[in-house]
């Protein structure tokens, strides 16, 4: 059983996380670009309008700052008797928080959430250099990610 | 420029596709299980209630039978200035329709749809043995798919 450090919490994303470092944390994954509070609110509103699909989580520290972020996108399918798949997306941990196993905790909780939502599997795409980390989270290699960029 | 054979059409999924071989076509990808017309309608209704997220397409032949299926799931993100990603899912072509390049046409159209929806990329997960096919569709390898099965 995995635990968070004292004073740390995992909870759903809130609009107030804009001023608690949400985007700065996300920026450690990839380019976030120009997103002001208004854009941020629009996206959070959109996500909250589809609560069965979008589940966006944050880990905060003892000062309520966002130190890790991650999302679960629940996709409803016809295959496997109308089953669901959980897509784990946009995982980021603030670099100065390494060594606290926040990423491991977050992934395990997102997998647990996918299970609670009735998914038959949880999947994600990653750089081959991160395979070892995801294996530590209990996942295994399933296939290749192919892309077309515009 | 790619074309469909005479009398073939690409269009959005309809409930009537239940009796036109939708599930039999999908079955060539993976196990579909026990899905009756009522279950099918429920899922189609659910997809149609989220039209910005779920785009489910079929190719029909000159007898209006479903010969290929594929879906685009549009995910709204915060990264890249609130960009979208198109997830290409559940691609299947009826085995007796091989050689007509239906799969190639379908993938290209789903990529085009992702572009029209404003996605910055279209991605999919596949078995390594299908990499060559997706490269022919203009895609390239981006990463690994990791999974956790319940
Ligand atoms: C498990 C995880 O966090 N995977 C992320 C994915 O969710 C994210 O959307 C993408 C952005 O990369 P990009 O900026 O190169 O498109 O990177 C990784 O694949
Ligand atoms: C491009 C494409 O069609 N990829 C499919 C994916 O969409 C589908 O959901 C999965 C089902 O496999 P499963 O039955 O082993 O979970 O197979 C492939 O990865």
Automatic annotation (TrEMBL), chains A, B:
Entry similarity comment: Belongs to the acetyltransferase family. GNA1 subfamily.
GO biological process, one term: UDP-N-acetylglucosamine biosynthetic process
Name of the molecule in the record: Glucosamine 6-phosphate N-acetyltransferase
Taxonomic lineage from the root: Eukaryota, Fungi, Dikarya, Ascomycota, Saccharomycotina
CC per GO annotation: endoplasmic reticulum membrane
Alphabetized GO MF terms: glucosamine 6-phosphate N-acetyltransferase activity
Cited SUPFAM superfamilies: Acyl-CoA N-acyltransferases (Nat) (SSF55729)
Quaternary assembly: Homodimer.
């Amino acid at each position: 059983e995995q635990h968070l450090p004292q004073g740390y919490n995992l909870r759903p994303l809130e609009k107030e996380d804009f001023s608690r470092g949400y985007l700065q944390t996300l920026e450690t994954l990839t380019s976030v670009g120009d997103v002001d509070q208004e854009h941020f609110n629009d996206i959070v509103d959109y996500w909250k309008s589809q609560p069965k699909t979008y589940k966006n989580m944050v880990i905060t520290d003892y000062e309520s700052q966002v130190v890790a972020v991650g999302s679960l996108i629940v996709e409803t399918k016809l295959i496997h008797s109308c089953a669901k798949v959980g897509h784990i997306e946009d995982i980021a941990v603030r670099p100065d928080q390494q060594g606290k196993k926040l990423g491991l905790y977050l992934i395990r909780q997102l997998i647990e959430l996918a299970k609670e939502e009735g998914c038959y599997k949880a999947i994600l795409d990653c750089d081959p250099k991160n395979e070892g980390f995801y294996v530590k989270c209990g996942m295994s290699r399933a296939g290749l990610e192919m892309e077309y960029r515009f």
